[in-house]
Structure formats: C-alpha cells, structure tokens
C-alpha cells in the first residue's frame, strides 16, 4: 500500500473514531501533499510524499523548539503530538551503530580531502537513507569522523 493510500485510510479511521489530533494532523498533511502536487503538476509518488512528510515533521520540530524557548509548553506538546502522528509514516530509523557503519563506509574514500568533503558525505548519506536518518545526527557523525582522521 502506498503512503498516500495509507494516509487516506488512516484519515477516514481518525474521522470515524473522532481522534481530533490525528484527524487534524492528517488533514494538514493531505493539504500539504495536494499543494505539492499542484506545484509539480503531476501525481505524487511515494518519494514525493516522503519529502512532504519530512518537511512537515521538520516544521513541527522547529515549532517545538521555539515554543519551548518561549515557555509555551502547551503549544509545544500539541506540536509534539502532531509530530509523533507524522513520524508513524516514516520508515524505521537507523540505530546509532548502523549510522556509524554507514558514515564509516561513506567517509572512508573521502578522508584524503578532509573537512571540505563533509557536504559530499552528508548529501550521499541523506540521499541513500532518506527518511531513515536525522540530518543533524548525520552531520555530527560525519564531522566527528572527519575530524578523527586528522
């Protein structure tokens, strides 16, 4: 089942069970996907839905940070609940050990260039493991590995 079909199915289920948080979150996700479809002027594929999903999760995480810094824990909790609904549609995340292995394998041929190859390594990992890794974690792991090689 595609991501779009799963979201539609879960949307109907949330509507029937009157799960307001899930319903509202999926409604916003469907709207963002529809806007993306209009931008691209074609039907969305799973990779396009993954991009929309990742963008929506990133927005929630940024909002959580801002609300927490402003002392608005009520709004931060709402955003956190929405983020957890969205994260259910992501593939399983890589563990720290798996990430370390991926970083080692990707960075090994780039060690001669030093820190200037950091962006190449990060973009290669992010492209290959889209939705399965956090960009900040990848950046930190690649930076640590490249600094270790000095």
Map the helices and strands.
Elements: H1 3-17, H2 20-40, H3 46-69, H4 73-87, H5 96-107, H6 118-128, H7 135-148
Helix pairs in contact: 1-2, 2-3, 2-4, 3-4, 5-6, 5-7, 6-7
Keywords:
75% helix; mainly alpha; Arc Repressor Mutant, subunit A; globular; 150 residues; 7 helices; Hypothetical Protein Yqey, Chain: A, domain1
Which band does the percent of strand residues land in?
under 5%
Q: What would you report as the Rg, rounded to the nearest angstrom? A: 18 Å
Overall tally of domains: 2
Name the CATH superfamily assignment of the largest domain: Uncharacterised protein YqeY/AIM41, N-terminal domain
Compressed to H and E, one letter per element, the order equals HHHHHHH
Please give the CATH architecture of the largest domain. Orthogonal Bundle
First-last Cα distance: 47 Å
By oligomeric state, this entry counts as single chain
Kindly report the CATH topology of the largest domain: Hypothetical Protein Yqey, Chain: A, domain1
**Overall helicity:** over 70%
Q: Mean pLDDT across all residues, rounded?
A: 91
User: Based on CA inertia axes, which overall geometry fits?
Assistant: globular
Class of the largest domain, according to the CATH hierarchy? Mainly Alpha
Could you name the ranges where pLDDT drops below 50 across 5 or more consecutive residues?
A: none
Helix count, per DSSP? Answer: 7
DSSP strand tally:
0
Q: Structural class of the helix and strand makeup?
A: mainly alpha
């Amino acid at each position: 089942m595609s991501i779009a079909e799963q979201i539609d199915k879960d949307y109907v289920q949330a509507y029937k069970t009157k799960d307001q948080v899930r319903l509202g979150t999926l409604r916003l996700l469907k709207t963002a996907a529809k806007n993306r479809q209009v931008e691209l002027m074609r039907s969305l594929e799973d990779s396009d839905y993954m991009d929309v999903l990742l963008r929506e999760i990133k927005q929630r995480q940024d909002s959580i940070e801002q609300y927490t810094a402003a002392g608005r824990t009520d709004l931060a909790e709402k955003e956190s609940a929405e983020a957890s609904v969205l994260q259910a549609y992501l593939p399983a995340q890589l563990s720290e050990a798996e990430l370390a292995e991926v970083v080692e394998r990707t960075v090994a041929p780039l060690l001669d260039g030093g820190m200037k190859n950091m962006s190449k390594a990060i973009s290669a990992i992010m492209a290959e493991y889209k939705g399965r890794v956090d960009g900040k974690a990848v950046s930190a792991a690649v930076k640590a590995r490249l600094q270790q090689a000095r």
